[in-house]
Amino acid sequence: MHYKLRVGLLALLSLLLILTGCASNNADVVATVNGKEITRAELDKQVNMTVEQYKQQGIDLTSKENKDMKAQLEKSVLDDLITKTLLMQEAERQKLTPSKEEVDRRIKDIKATFGKEEDFKKALAEVKMTEQDVREDITFRLTYQKLVDKVTADVKAPTEAEIAKYYNEHKDQFGTPERLEVKHILFAFDGKVPNAPKRTEAEALQAAKLALAEITQKGRDFAAVAREKSDDLGTRENGGSYTVDKGAGTTDPAFEKAAAALKPGEITKQPVKSAYGYHLIKLEKIEPATQKSLAEVKDQIAAQLESEAKQAKFSQFVDELKKKAEIDNRLAPKTGDSSKK
After folding, report:
1. Which of 10, 201, 271, 331 could make an SS bond with 208 (beta carbons 3.0 to 4.6 A apart)?
2. Phi, psi of 39, deg, nearest 5
3. What is the predicted pLDDT for the residue at 27?
4. Where does the UniProt annotation place the signal sequence (predicted)?
């Protein structure tokens, strides 16, 4: 009796351990793609590598203020992992995965750019990556390109008519507007420009008039006065030099209008008020607008249109794969059937 009870308890304990183990493993799975599991560890690893890359750029995603940004990053990384898994499955089905030799050659090329092996390892350590991580990334990239090449192999080059149509509808992409090379001196007020002296509007206007008198009446060099007095830290050190692209909408309208009214060598007779303060403006020279001909940019447009057509076809291919696949994204909001994402 005791023996049977002991066996029964052991069997029950074993069953509980199995069930507990299954529950634990199941909880560690964040998504499945046609039965292939993506674990929390895999997701965290990719997220942490991306967090380190942001950190190298001075952005700390682990801080409280960036909490939402990190949550969005996690969602985005998981979506990428799901897509990568799906594409790798399709590539394996079509026997398009790269050979070990192909991956080895690419690794060798990457190492060569660092010069020394220790420099390569140091760079990996800085972003918390291993050589195996690099190998896996290269494997995916080569696989991805093989798949893209096969799926888009029948995409035709754009016709002469399509190229001409694009050129005529996007001429501004292939030229430059008339450019005004100017020098200016800014006198900011009411805190419109960071780190500028505290002034009222009247004080800024008076300071601008005094500086104008120094230049026009006392003969002081415009650039020298700009380096001494301008509140525009971005142009002060180079004597106030600034380029106005006419009609591009990148310059304050009042500033552009005043600059366009000048002839080369002329200075505005009165300070010009903009959204930033009062300016003194001197026109140095005018660079005429340019426009490349269709013949000059024909190959560029053809390559762009063909690339866009291939991207569109491959995106459609990926969408179709996702529709047919059994995908369970367990971190996504539940809105009905989660098997198709």
Report:
1. 271
2. -90, 165
3. 61
4. 1-23
